[in-house]
Amino acid sequence: MMEEFSRTGGGQELFSDIYDAIKEKYSPSLITDSSYGNNMNFREVFRTSYRYHENMSPLSIFINVRRLRREIGEIMKNRQYDIVFNNHPNIFIYRGDVNYLHSFSFLDPVIDAQGNITNILIYRMIKMSGLYDIYDGANFITHGRYTLELSRKMFPYIGISPGKMDYINIPVRDFYDIPIGDKKNRVLTFGRINRDKKLESVLEAAGRMREIEFVIAGAVNRGDETYFQTLKNKAPGNVAFFANPDYQEKVKLFKDSKVYLHTRRKEPYGITVAEAIAFGCVPVVPKSGGPWVDIVEEGKYGLGYDTIPDDEIRIAMAADNEFLKTIIQSRERFSFSLFRERVLDYFGGIASEKRI
Question: How far, in Å, CA of 342 to CA of 337, rounded?
Fold first, then answer.
């Protein structure tokens, strides 16, 4: 198994999910850059020199990744495993038996939400570098239909014909009894507090709806401190902030909030939107990306907006208990038991093909 733990985010949570799904059947080893969760036990652990922080320059990342590729080559030389799982193939440049796509076929920095290339120069640099050529014919899984279909569209742009591709929805680990009538007229936004999340949109909406309470909460990783402080300085008085909340604080925020607002348009999946559904919040998301396609299912379990979410937030605030119950009942598609079953089936199929 390969993963980088120098930051906190959805990728690291997904790695933990995969680990818990396979640990009873497999005895995994780990290649990593940093410390990892205390609840994980590995047969062997190999350390690398790779280090990441938010807002690193593309050149620094490229140099780090090239060096890491050589290190992994040395580690894997003459070693054999039933399955090699690479959870960050854009950073750990090694063709695993299973490679997990958290984004869009290595081109996510240079495309928009529809897969149009927005930076021709960097795109050409990525293609000409040949950095990802080793993934020609490789197997990939991802978290939903949106990322799967966009990746299939983008792979040919860098000369890759992938092998087996599929998706498995990321699970919500814990389901709670939700007292619907006790929810507050609060709009919650939760996740990494990072520029890519476009959290200025929350401040703008809050400024237009002063009668409603807004909360921005989540991890502030190294490199994002200045952005977090800038948000706080610009925020109107009806916006509260929770930096790096612990698990119980997170649960309380979701339980108490009636509406969940998502702001990033080019979101590969959006696990916090799935968590919002599990907690009976009404999701309000852009009409693009994984939250709209895979989680809200284009309006079936929440609301979508084109540019400004104000009307949708007010409609969500007025949602009746029947709609809230419909949202909560849909959460079974995100159960961990279903996720584990699908992961073991997928890994088992790959292992069988490898032995042939």
Answer: 9
